[in-house]
Structure formats: structure tokens, C-alpha cells
Design a protein that fits this description.
The two termini are about 20 Å apart. This protein is about 35% helix and about 20% strand. The protein is of the alpha+beta class and about 550 residues long. The protein contains nine helices and 22 strands. Strand 20 and strand 21 form a beta hairpin.
Length: about 550
């Protein structure tokens, strides 16, 4: 049909040009962006799938970072474990060197100093952190952190944080004694003349000439009673009413009529005490205690060939007790006593001994004056308390009182060097009687106080961490193996994450990325079609002129 109003051919050509133009613009957008899906209409389903793949790839990327961070923590922990191995090996070597009989006391002390320094390094390493996260457990047992492998089928790797020793932590409140030299602050009007003489005894030598002499000890004058030779033994219950009256002695509001003399440098109320390694006086043994020198005394060996010089000790290696009824004084004497496993006395250089004394004087109505007297102190621990052959090192002796409610501990207590100086007059000793080696206390209404005014007592609250043993080399090797296993597992997870990310990226690329070669060919084709369409539109417009020619003929 020939029509003037409607050019059907031109309309068709125009529509084709428009469609070609849209396709051409789409192809140009894809080529310029590099994406096959520029808008959701390009591939709605593909876009939805690619969005999920993008989210998964981000998750895997974050997981890879987390895993590599965990790997860095483990590598840091491994470095610390290697250093620990070197420290423990050196400690083991030093412990072996110490037992050489050719080493003198100074050599042993030098070994002990190095061991203590190395042990302090273990404590420092125990506190190490990685970005604020502890590398080692703060408890007595290992704990672990979980490194989650999500979204890799919820794989989990454990990072073990080992402990570096067995220890206990306690917060305790106790009273410490500071220096004083004023005995006039005591009310001593009830003391007998002999007791006053004991109180103001000229020096720190043991008080002797006490009562009759025990059978078989003709040269000993520390009283008529002696404990049989023993290790960790005690006397039977000793009735003290002859000294303190029928009501006995008031210790924290409890009146005791009996005591137990314990070989290990203390007396107790209510029951004997065989514990040889002392705890803090504040934590105590669970038994009311008066301890001039709580440590592992062993009197099983015979007498020493000669007494320690400079005092009244006799070399008996025995524990004596004397009840002076006439003068109301109880005296317990540890005469040149030795420590546990101190063998071959007199033939080896470890022939060391301690001489000290405890006196309790009746001061009326259950009250008392108490004296700690130290004539000679050579050792501070037995070998069962981890000392060396000279009675040094390990857990040092302690001195003080615990009446079941309040503890009063000498400032030297638990300090090896200061306990060894108890007999001396060094400025750091802190004796409280004005005489070296003599400590005097008042038991009044069940409470212990030293002489002078209230400023001599200071209340201390502290948190004490006590290490019982350090991690062994065998345990350390196990922890190192666990560390290596965790590193291997995490590295495997990292490899798996990388492979998953690569596969996911490849799959996502197939959906999203444009095929440049194919799209370029398509673009060229569309350009040709577009040019052809424009030419045909021109021809369609020219075709209308034939109608005019028809009209001219007419």
C-alpha cells in the first residue's frame, strides 16, 4: 500500500536503529566497566549469585587474616618456649654442678644466685602477652583458645596456653614488727627476779644452768627434759599449769593448760605439729603456734665434735625443755641442732648447726613475756625443703606467732639472708630489745605485742604468689609439640582458605566479568547494523518522493 500519512518502512528502520543503539550502549558499558552485569536487568539471577559469592569471599579474606594473626601468636609463644627450654636446661646443669663435693660454700651460693635469677626470668616469661593476649596460663593448669575456621565447615584449632609452674596465690593481712628498743613499755611487775634477769640477759647466748641435768647428758644444763633424737617429732602434751596456774596461758582468748614442743623449731597449742617446710605464719598450720625458728630440724645424728663458738651451746644436737616452777619460767632450747639430711657431721664442710631458745615467763592472769633468743644461726632449711648440702636455698625458716586469729611475723621471716643475721647486730636485722639476737614480746589478754608504743606494729595486706615447682623439661617438650601441631593445623587452614578464595573468585568472574573478545566482536557487528539502519532509514524517507512523481503525472 502506498500512503502519504504513514511511512511504514521509515518507522521500522527507526525502531531497528533504536534497538541497535540500546544494544550498542550496553556493549560499550560492559566493555568500559569490564563487567558483564552492569545492571540487574542484564542478568538478574547472575547478579544474585555473584552478590552471595562476594560476601563469602569477604568472609574468607577476614578468616585468612584471623588465622595468620593466630599463627603469629603461636610463633611468638614458640620463641618463648625455646627460651624456657634454655633456662630449664641451664638450671638443671647448675643443680648438677652444686652437688660437687669440691665446691665451697661461696660456690654454692653463686650457683643459687644464678638459679634464682633464672627462675625470676621464668616468672617474667609467664606474664608475656601478644597484643594484650596472654601467651601462658595464669592458673595451675593449661587453658586453650579456639581458632574457629568458619566458614570452612566450622573447623576449630586449639591454641594451648600452658602454665609455667604450680603456684598458689593468697591475700593475707598480718602485723609486722619494726625496730624498737624500749622494754619499759612492758608491765613486768608479776615477773620473778630470775625471770627479770632472763629478760635483761646481757647478750644473745643461750640461758643455761636450768634445773637438773637429764640422764646421760652430764654436760648439758638446759633443763631436765630432752626430746629423744628424732626427725619431725614432738613431745607428748606438756602440762604447764605449774608455771601459769590452773587456768593456763591465754592465747587469743583461749586458755591452754598444755603445750607441745615440736622438734622443728616451734611449740603449738592443742595438737603437735610435724610439718617441716614452713608456710607463712599468717597462713599458718591451722594450729596456734609460737615459732622462734620453724624449719626442718633433725636431731637423729649424734652430738657435734665441738659446739658452735661464742656462746653457751654444747653441741648436743638436742631439743630441751625446762619448767622452772619456782620462778614461773618455761624454757625450750634447740642446742646446736642440725637440718634434715645433714650427714657426716664433722667430716664434711656442711657441719653447720643452729642454737636458739624460746622463753615464756608468767606475767599473771594468763599473760606472759616471751623471748626469742638466737645465739647462732648457720642454716635456714632442710634438704626435704629443697635446700643444698649447707642448709641454704629452698624454703627458708619462718619466725613469729599465730594465735588462730591474728598473726605476728618477724620482718626477717622467710628471708634466708636476714634469718641468718638474726644473731648479729647488722642495721637491717631490726631486733627489738636493744640487743642483737634477742626479740621480746608481751602476751597480754591473748594478744601478742612487741615492746614500745603502737608505732612498732604495722598492719600489712599483700597478695603473695608462692611457686611450688616450675614446669619440667618433659612438660615443656609436650607444650612445644602442641604448639607445633597447632601451627601446622592453622597453616593447613590458611592454604584451604586460599584455595577456596581462588575457586570462588574464578566462579564469580565467570558470572560477572565481560568476555572482552566476544563483546568487542558484538560491538563491531552492532556498529555495522547501526550504519545499515541509518542508511535504510534514509532510503525509506526517499521512497516517499515517488508518490510526488505519481501526482505530477496526474
Amino acid at each position: 500500500m502506498v500512503s502519504i500519512n504513514t511511512n511504514i518502512a521509515a518507522n521500522i528502520a527507526a525502531r531497528n536503529i533504536y534497538d541497535t543503539k540500546s544494544d550498542l550502549e550496553g556493549s560499550l558499558s560492559k566493555l568500559s566497566s569490564g563487567s558483564r552485569i552492569v545492571k540487574s536487568s542484564d542478568d538478574a539471577g547472575g547478579m544474585a549469585v555473584s552478590m552471595k559469592m562476594d560476601a563469602q569471599e569477604l568472609q574468607l579474606s577476614a578468616l585468612e587474616k584471623n588465622l595468620t594473626n593466630s599463627l603469629s601468636l603461636l610463633e611468638t609463644q614458640e620463641g618463648a618456649l625455646r627460651i624456657l627450654s634454655q633456662i630449664l636446661s641451664r638450671i638443671s646443669e647448675l643443680e648438677a654442678l652444686k652437688v660437687d663435693v669440691t665446691k665451697n660454700k661461696g660456690d654454692i651460693e653463686n650457683y643459687d644466685k644464678e638459679i634464682k635469677n633464672l627462675q625470676s626470668e621464668i616468672v617474667k616469661i609467664r606474664e608475656e602477652k601478644f597484643n594484650g593476649v596472654r601467651l601462658f596460663s595464669s592458673t595451675n593448669t593449661a587453658d586453650s583458645m579456639e581458632v574457629d575456621g568458619f566458614p570452612l565447615n566450622d573447623n576449630v584449632v586449639e591454641i594451648i596456653r600452658p602454665p609455667l609452674g604450680q603456684f598458689t596465690t593468697e591475700t593475707r593481712t598480718f602485723n609486722r614488727i619494726r625496730e624498737s628498743s624500749n622494754l619499759n613499755s612492758f608491765d613486768t611487775h608479776c615477773l620473778s627476779d630470775i625471770a627479770r634477769n632472763f629478760l635483761f640477759h646481757n647478750d644473745n647466748s643461750l640461758v643455761n644452768n636450768l634445773g637438773s641435768v637429764p640422764s646421760g647428758n652430764s654436760s648439758v644444763t638446759f633443763g631436765e627434759n630432752a626430746l629423744t633424737r628424732n626427725d619431725d617429732g614432738s613431745s607428748s602434751a606438756i602440762d604447764i599449769t605449774s608455771i601459769f596456774g590452773s587456768s593456763g596461758i591465754n592465747f587469743n582468748g583461749v586458755n591452754y593448760t598444755q603445750i607441745y614442743v615440736n622438734n622443728n623449731g616451734n611449740i603449738t597449742f592443742g595438737s603437735p605439729l610435724s610439718t617441716f617446710t614452713p608456710s607463712t605464719i599468717a597462713s599458718g598450720s591451722g594450729i596456734p603456734i609460737i615459732a622462734p625458728f620453724w624449719a626442718d630440724v633433725d636431731t637423729r645424728e649424734p652430738i657435734n665434735p665441738s659446739p658452735s663458738p661464742g656462746g653457751n651451746s654444747t653441741g648436743s644436737n638436742l631439743t630441751y625443755y625446762d619448767l622452772d616452777v619456782e620462778n614461773a619460767v618455761l624454757t625450750i632450747t634447740w642446742d646446736d641442732v642440725r637440718f634434715y639430711n645433714n650427714t657426716n657431721a664433722g667430716t664434711n664442710p656442711n657441719n653447720v648447726s643452729n642454737s636458739f631458745q624460746l622463753q615464756i615467763m608468767n606475767n599473771c592472769n594468763g599473760n606472759a613475756i616471751i623471748v626469742f633468743r638466737y645465739e647462732n644461726i648457720d642454716w635456714t632449711a632442710g634438704q626435704a625443703s629443697n635446700s643444698d648440702v649447707y642448709g641454704l636455698g629452698g624454703t627458708p625458716a619462718r619466725a613469729g606467732f599465730n594465735n588462730g586469729a591474728v598473726a605476728l611475723e618477724l620482718p626477717q621471716s622467710g628471708n634466708q639472708d636476714q634469718m641468718l643475721e638474726l644473731e648479729s647486730s647488722q642495721p637491717n636485722v631490726g631486733y627489738n630489745s636493744g640487743r642483737p639476737g634477742v626479740f621480746i614480746f608481751q602476751l597480754s589478754n591473748g594478744q601478742i605485742t612487741p615492746p614500745i608504743d603502737e608505732t612498732v606494729i604495722e598492719t600489712v595486706t599483700e597478695t603473695v604468689t608462692t611457686w611450688h615447682s616450675y614446669v619440667s623439661l618433659e612438660e615443656l617438650s609436650d607444650y612445644t609439640a602442641q604448639n607445633g601441631a597447632s601451627q601446622s593445623a592453622i597453616r593447613n587452614l590458611v592454604d584451604s582458605v586460599k584455595i577456596n578464595r581462588q575457586n570462588l573468585n574464578t566462579a564469580s568472574s565467570r558470572i560477572k566479568d565481560v568476555d572482552i573478545a566476544s563483546e568487542t566482536s558484538k560491538l563491531s557487528s552492532l556498529k555495522v547494523i547501526q550504519e545499515a539502519g541509518v542508511a535504510m532509514l534514509s532510503q525509506a524517507n526517499i521512497s516517499q518522493q515517488s508518490i510526488l512523481r505519481l501526482l505530477q503525472i496526474t
